[in-house]
Each structure stands twice: as structure tokens, then as C-alpha cells.
Design goal:
One of its GO terms (biological process) is negative regulation of DNA-templated transcription. InterPro entries: Homeodomain-like_sf, Repressor_TetR_C, Tet_transcr_reg_TetR-rel_C_sf. The chain is mainly alpha-helical. The protein is built from twelve helices and no strands. It has two domains: 60 residues, Homeodomain-like (Arc Repressor Mutant, subunit A); 142 residues, Tetracycline Repressor, domain 2, CATH 1.10.357.
Length: 238
């Protein structure tokens, strides 16, 4: 009894169907590369754009990253490669070093707004920066817990300021007067309606984002200095 073998046309058709039906394999390295390539071409990023780049469906991508927040976290983490090293403490007091550190983080967040959604989770996923910063503060005389709390307070302050700063930039770009610009207009038009604010004698310098940031950080550092576990020798230089 002879067995009929499929002809070459049937074999080719079967192989082709098998290839088309197989889900392409992806891993985190491929996803990171796709996020890097797709993200370089647009301000925002979508599951569909990345899935199309990888040649998979959105459901397959979802199983790997858990949704759009997972992609944004990856994109934010990739931004770390552009960041400079943490500023060295040499020649600084702890106060002056925290001011430099604050400018470092502010610059990073302004350059990479994606980082704002995740901040430390994207900036320092392995906690190595946190360890380095805490060690520096301890060398300045902080108790370890106080060093950790000081870092947390500083990052929270910077994040809040930059969020407002980016909103102000966006409003100005869209032709909408930012909040404090509108305050000036109200003070000029109705000084009697805002008597306390009229006594401040606000000027255009008060709209300078750099000047305001320095003032905010000054207040933050003054608050840190009053906390339990802060250095007893505030003028120590490393």
C-alpha cells in the first residue's frame, strides 16, 4: 500500500501558514529599543506605535509591559543615559552641595519631562544614587535617617516646582498668560481689591523662574537644617 506524499505546493503553503501564525518573540531589550526609536520621533508614545514597530499585536506587548505606564517608565528610564554624574561634594558645605544637587535634578526633569511621572523610580531604579547621596550627607554630619528624609523632602520640593514650571512654559507657548502674569495684570487694574499683595511691590524679576527656584530651595534647606539629626556643624566643608 503506497502513501501519498503532499506535493511541493501544499508543503510550501503549510510552511508559510505556520510562519504567519507564529507570534514574533519579543523581550525587554527589543521593547526598550522600540521605545527608544519610536519615542525619538514623537512627543508622546502609544502601545500601538511600539507594537507596530515590533511587529506584534498590542495584547502581546501588554503582557510584557502591563500597559502604557510601563512603556512610559521604560522611556523615562532610558533618559538616564543622557544625565551627567551626580555633582561632587568636594569644596562644599552640605547647604551649598544641596543647592547644586537641586539644580542637577531640576535640569534633568526639565530636559526629560517623562521622568516627572516616575522621578526616583526612573532616575534611580537601583537606589545607587540614593545610597551615594545619603553617604555624602552622612559625611557632612547627618544621621542616616535624617539624610534619607532630607533627600526625600528635597526631591519632592523640586518635583513640585518643575511641574509648575513646565505648566507655565506650556501656557506661555500657547499664548495664555501664566498665573503670576495675570496677578500683575490684576494688581495694575484693581490694586484696592488686593491690598496685601499690592504692598509686596512685585516686579518682573519675581517672574524669573531661576530666581524663584533658588528661593524655594533656600526655604527647603532652612527647613532641613531644623530637623532632628541634621549636622551640628553647618559650616563643615568636605
Amino acid at each position: 500500500m503506497s502513501v501519498t506524499k503532499p506535493n511541493s505546493f501544499m508543503q510550501a503553503g503549510t510552511r508559510g501558514k505556520s510562519r504567519r501564525g507564529r507570534t514574533p518573540s519579543i523581550d525587554m531589550q527589543k521593547i526598550e529599543n522600540a521605545v527608544r526609536e519610536v519615542g525619538a520621533k514623537m512627543d508622546d508614545i502609544s502601545m500601538k506605535d511600539v507594537a507596530d514597530y515590533l511587529g506584534v499585536n498590542v495584547t502581546t506587548l501588554y503582557r510584557h509591559v502591563g500597559g502604557i505606564d510601563g512603556l512610559r517608565r521604560i522611556r523615562a528610564s532610558l533618559s538616564r543615559s543622557d544625565l551627567a554624574d551626580l555633582p561632587a561634594p568636594h569644596g562644599h558645605t552640605w547647604q551649598s552641595w544641596l543647592k547644586v544637587l537641586a539644580e542637577y535634578y531640576r535640569s534633568a526633569l526639565l530636559q526629560h519631562p517623562d521622568l516627572l511621572d516616575f522621578v526616583q523610580a526612573a532616575l534611580d531604579p537601583d537606589f545607587l544614587n540614593l545610597e551615594q547621596e545619603a553617604s555624602i550627607l552622612v559625611n557632612f554630619g547627618f544621621e542616616p535617617r535624617a539624610a534619607l528624609l532630607a533627600h526625600s523632602f528635597l526631591i519632592t520640593t523640586i518635583t513640585g516646582y518643575v511641574q509648575q514650571e513646565l505648566q507655565t512654559i506650556e501656557e506661555a507657548r500657547n499664548g495664555y498668560a501664566p498665573y503670576y502674569s495675570r496677578l500683575f495684570q490684576n494688581l495694575d487694574a484693581h490694586p484696592d481689591r488686593l491690598p496685601t499683595l499690592s504692598k509686596v511691590n512685585l516686579s518682573q524679576r519675581d517672574l524669573d523662574r531661576d530666581v524663584n527656584f533658588k528661593s524655594i530651595i533656600h526655604y527647603a534647606i532652612a527647613g532641613i537644617a531644623c530637623q532632628k539629626g541634621a549636622p551640628k556643624d553647618p559650616d563643615k566643608v568636605l
